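Hey, resending since the last one bounced:
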Amino acid sequence: MSNEAATTSGRVRHLLMAVAALAGLWAAHPLVAQVPASGVLRPAIEVPAPAADGSQAYALTTGADGRTYLNWLEPVGTDAHALKFSVLEASGWGPPREIARGTNWFVNWADRPSLAALGDGTLLAHWLVHTGRAKGSYGYGVQVARSNDRGRTWTRTFNDGMENVADYDGFLTFVPNATGADAVFLRPETPDVPVVGASGHDGHAVADDEHIKTVAVVSFGGDGRPGPVQTVDADACTCCMTDIARTPDGLIAVFRDHQPGEIRDISVVRQVNGRWTPAVPVAQDGWKIPGCPTNGPAIATRGRQVVVAWFTAANNTPRLKWATSTDGGATFSAPVVVDAGAPVGYPDVVLLDDGTSVVSWLERKGEGVGEVLLRRVSAAGVAAPTVAVARSVSGRGTGVPNLVRAGGDLLVAFRKDRVQTARVPLAAVPR
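The structure tokens again:
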């Protein structure tokens, strides 16, 4: 072999070794490639929200009626709060309407009220009522009300946890159904409520002094009246947000689980043939933490396609992850990392018509500085560059950023001194 041929052969060999090394690196650290999934999202445009200064505890939802709703809490006087909502119109948010107000509410940055809009103009809303023995104590329950006149008047239809003294029911999430709505929430261990999903985790015995939360589901009719409350997981992480969606098989709920050894990874429970399955991990992160991080997952579905986004700090490495399923959530792909390097968490996710998804989350940009980011991800886990929606603080003051599809746009809610919203057009930036 000539010297020139040997040199060329050596270069090829070194190139192949480098490619193999990079492949191994990618396998060990599944960071998404910076390749546009379906074009780069356009910059965010502010949509002024009708929320007052000091407003917080917000949520966006798209109803079965196709309309987009924003609800939030705002202070009233010196010692009360009002739950309000607004409907997105062609020119922006409509005038706010009040659902309820109270002086004994539990107001919290993470456990936020929510709204469900049914197809006939019926609305359901929930908020939290303080039930502790003293002001500031950690006891509260869930209250649900119904409106059959698009939010002009409201009737309370459901209470859960009103007997709590030092525990709580909360972190409720709605999803509309054909005639009403379904909901998932956390509640204390309730011995007289049968577990219809799993009775525990591989026989894990729970110590008497452990703070136990269970994952419960309940269905509401069009009249706002609840069916029986069912426990679908008997041992969950104690204060992380839940989420719920629907596939052709039935409901699918996602939550931060609690496994033996203080492992707090993300699990799903599914409704198949009318029955709830045992909890199945979305991924085995192995995050061991002796307390709840108050950082729950998000889920979106389109047919049998399911995507889940979540935060983990396993091995003391904060990550915002994404995984997908093509079989209704029975199995999930290997997770990929979608953050920008310093995630705080609090994700949300939507699925688009082309099978791509968009994830939102809070990223740390400096000491005390946070940024709400979006990233579009293909069904194969390939992501476009991030899009910055807004700067805020990197802690609880921002609340839990929320993301929905609103016509040809994405709509994002966040907080900077008050609740704010912005839209991000889905049309790709011309290249």
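Residues 1-38, 199-209 have pLDDT under 50 and may be disordered.

Sorry for the duplicate.
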